[in-house]
Amino acid sequence: MSVSEQYKPLLEDKTYLRHFWHPVCTLAEFERSQPSGHGPMAVTLLGEQVVLARLNGKIVAAADRCAHRSAKLSLGKVCNKNGEDFIQCPYHGWEYDKSGTCKLVPACPDKSIPPRAKVSTFDCEVKYDIVWVRLDNSFDCTEIPYLADWDNPNMQVIVADSYIWNTVAERRWENFTDFSHFAFVHPGTLYDPFFASHPTVLVNRVDGELQFKLAPPREMDGIPEEAPMGDFDYRCTMPYSINLEIKLWRDDSRFILWTTACPVDEKTCRNFMIIVREKDGQPDHMHLAFQKRVLEEDQPIIQSQWPAEISSGEISVATDKVSIQYRKWHRELSMAAVKGKDAFTAALCTNVRDELAS
Ligand code: FES
Ligand SMILES: [Fe+2]
């Protein structure tokens, strides 16, 4: 049996992902993309080319392809006429309003504009200083993921720049929630390799989240001081967001390491990280440098996984329970989306208690 026969993609139909909100860039990255601070900016989500632009104060997302001769609108500019903002195509200057409707064809301004001179627009919101896009709102049953304490004035927040990994978003999620790699990929950074074995965790599905906890051994040696070590409490909003709340051993304070991934295309994900912590007097760059060190340990291993798509041929063991449950849920969502809104909503929102919990 060839590798491609044995390692078939687990998720053959990924169109269900179009129903979720996905992060596409940080607000700072959007604002840096053009001197005006308003875009346009090109992003890719699930293989779709999307243009972002801030029109009259609100960021809009549209297909990055002019209806005229298919140039990229993201190479154009935002212009203003009589107080209204438009995206102007770089090729022949057609101007599109926030609904994606062409309002001006400069070459023949006195002629009527063809009714089909429109580009598709998508749901777009800014939350946690990140720009989120939802390609398909026909089910309208998904929300932007949970992030603890974003608005808590007693906490300090860092929104890191996003970064690309050459793998799928599911691999990135699984890497972040994988306990048994700590001893091998992060010895002396996050973990003492002497403690390679792990107890089985309880994994519950609650309100669109996978929830589980891990208490690493306190007897570990050789962990650097800047490592946020403590008891781990995970709340993971499908499909790719992880709110890891750590109760730090050193002072019982709360440290939230939040991460999410954008499924850019079948080989690429864009990753986001926010750190929310009780005021600890430590500089932001120290926390960012530590996380960078951890990510640099992970990246070559995760990018080496092949095929990049998670596959049905991989062998799992008891400590892969989080990944097993995660994959199972993705498969259920994939199949439910084909049946329609009710089936998809049920697959997303039905609570499932771990059978070991009773
Ligand atoms: S291609 Fe956009 S105006 Fe012609
Ligand atoms: Fe890791």
Number of domains: 2
- Give the termini distance in whole angstroms: 42 Å
Q: Beta-strand level of the residues, as a percent range?
A: 25-35%
Query: Any idea of the CATH topology of the largest domain?
Result: Naphthalene 1,2-dioxygenase Alpha Subunit, Chain A, domain 1
Mean pLDDT: 95
Task: Give structural attributes.
alpha+beta, 20% helix, 358 residues, Naphthalene 1,2-dioxygenase Alpha Subunit, Chain A, domain 1, binds FE2/S2 (inorganic) cluster, 2 domains, globular, binds fe (ii) ion, Rieske Iron-sulfur Protein, 7 helices, 8-stranded antiparallel beta sheet, single chain
Description of the molecule:
The model has no long low-confidence stretch (mean pLDDT 95). Strands 11, 12, 13, 14, 15, 16, 17 and 18 form an eight-stranded antiparallel β-sheet that branches. With 358 residues, this protein is α+β, with helices and mostly antiparallel strands. Helix 6 (321-339) runs antiparallel to helix 7 (341-349). It starts with a helix and ends in a 9-residue tail after the last helix. Helices cover 20% and strands 30% of the residues. The radius of gyration is 22 Å and the shape is globular. It has two domains: 21-134, Rieske [2Fe-2S] iron-sulphur domain (Rieske Iron-sulfur Protein), CATH 2.102.10.10; 155-356, Naphthalene 1,2-dioxygenase Alpha Subunit, Chain A, domain 1, CATH 3.90.380. Strand 5 (77-81) and strand 6 (84-88) form a beta hairpin.
